[in-house]
Amino acid sequence: MIQAGLIEQLELPSTVDSLTKIEGFIEEFCEQCNLNEDYYGNILIALTEGVNNAITHGNKMDKNKTVLLNMESSDSDVEFTIVDEGDGFDYNNIPDPTLPENLERLSGRGVFLMRQLADEVDFEGNGSTIRLRFKGLNN
């Protein structure tokens, strides 16, 4: 059962090593709330993609900049917010990674994956803040 009002925050340096902290963070959350492996996998992949984009594209791997990962839960939903210190991006004009001309590209799938795995994905301001919502986790 998800604990309503559960709030956690991670402050991550903009290094690739920070990605390893996400797995433990999500694992602990899923164990605490007794969520099944499907939710664990979806949340883990979506958050890893979001934080990786924030570190790589937002903060441009500047280890003096941080990425904030916030989590807040209600009775059956959880919302994660990822905030970087970058200039943002045009989140309305992202190339579709499923188009034939993009299939062999080595990058460009993060936002697509987040949108497929989370129930809601919202970009705020200039795109340096992403909100990922997972709903009905107690069903």
Entry keywords:
139 residues, alpha+beta, Heat Shock Protein 90, 3 helices
Instruction: State the strand order across the main sheet.
Output: 1-2-3-5-4
Assign an overall shape.
globular
Q: State the distance separating the first and last CA atoms.
A: 10 Å
Number of strands: 5
**How is the main sheet built?**
5 strands, antiparallel
Proportion of helical residues: 25-40%
CATH superfamily, please?
Answer: Histidine kinase-like ATPase, C-terminal domain
Number of helices: 3
Would you tell me the structural class of the helices and strands? Answer: alpha+beta
Average pLDDT taken over every residue: 88
Uncertain runs: none
Question: Topology as H/E string?
Answer: EHHEEHEE
- CATH-level-2 architecture: 2-Layer Sandwich
Q: Using the CA coordinates, give the radius of gyration.
A: 15 Å
Q: Could you explain the architecture of this structure?
A:
The chain is α+β, with helices and mostly antiparallel strands and about 140 residues long. The chain has a single domain (about 5-135), classed as Histidine kinase-like ATPase, C-terminal domain (Heat Shock Protein 90). It has 3 helices and 5 strands; from the N terminus they run βααββαββ. The protein has helices at about 20-35, 35-60, 110-115, and strands at about 5-15, 65-75, 80-85, 120-125, 130-135. Strands 1-2-3-5-4 form a 5-stranded antiparallel beta sheet, with helices on one face. Strand 4 (about 120-125) and strand 5 form a beta hairpin. The longest helix is centred in the middle third of the chain and has 22 residues, at about 35-60. It starts with 6 loop residues before the first strand and ends in a 5-residue tail after the last strand. The model has no long low-confidence stretch (mean pLDDT about 90).
